[in-house]
Amino acid sequence: MMKIQARGRCGLGAVAVLLSMTMTAMAGDAKPAAKKTKAVVKADGPKVSYDRQIRPIFQAHCQGCHQPAKAGGAYVMTAFDRMLRGGESGEKAIHPGHADQSFLIDKITPDGGKAEMPQDQPPLSVAEIELIARWIQQGAADDTPVNARAKYDLEHPPEYTRLPVIPAVAF
To answer: 81-125 pLDDT, tens per residue?
Structure first.
C-alpha cells in the first residue's frame, strides 16, 4: 500500500509538472505574427559617413540590380541624386532627416524574417538597417570626396591631359 501511495504521489506531481509545462508552451506559441515595425531612429551618436559606411552596403547588396544598365523598379542607386528620388513607385526613396518616412527603409526592413529587398537574397543585418536609418535621420548627406565624384557620359567625356597609353596593337 505504501508503494502505491508513493507511486500515486509521484504520478500526480509528474502530471502537474507536465501540465504546467504544456500550458507554458501553449502560451508561448500564442504569440501574434511578427509585424513590420519601424524602430524609432535617433540621429544622435557618431556621424555616419555615406562614402565609408553606407555606399559599401549598397554596393554589396543593392547596386547589382539598381544601376543604369539594369534599373530594377526604375530605381538607380549608383547616382546619389537618383537614389534620393526613387523609382517607379513614385514615392521618394529617402527623406533626409526622416528615416521613418523613407520608402527605402520600408523595403529593406524584414517582415516575418523576410525583406522585400534585396530581392531573393537574405535581408540586411539589423546593424546595417540601423546604420542606414541613422544616416538618413542625420540628413542623408553625401560626403564622397570631390575627386571620387567624377562622372563621364556622352555629354561629359573624359578630358585627357596626356596621350593615352596603347600597350599593344593587333594587326
So the answer is: 888 888 888 888 899 999 999 989 998 998 888 888 888 888 899
d(CA 27, CA 33): 14
CA 36 vs CA 39, 133, 136: distances in Å: 10, 15, 19
**Total residues found in the chain within this entry:** 171
132 contacts: CB under 8 Å, gap ≥ 6: 54, 57, 104, 105, 108, 124
For residue 86, give the nearest of 35, 140, 130, 152 by alpha carbon: 140
Burial of 130 (C-beta count, 10 Å sphere; 0-12/13-18/19+): middle
Asked whether the beta carbons of 124 and 130 are under 8 A apart, the reply is no
CA distance 67 to 79: 8
Q: What percent of the chain has pLDDT over 70?
A: 71
What is the signed CA dihedral for 41, 130, 60, 50, rounded to 10 degrees? Answer: 50
Question: What cell numbers appear for 42 in the block?
Answer: 535617433
Domains in the chain: boundaries: 50-145
C-alpha cell recorded at residue 130: 540601423
- Residue 128 phi/psi, 5-degree rounding, is -65, -45
Neighbours of 21 (CB within 10 A): 10
All three cell numbers of 41: 531612429
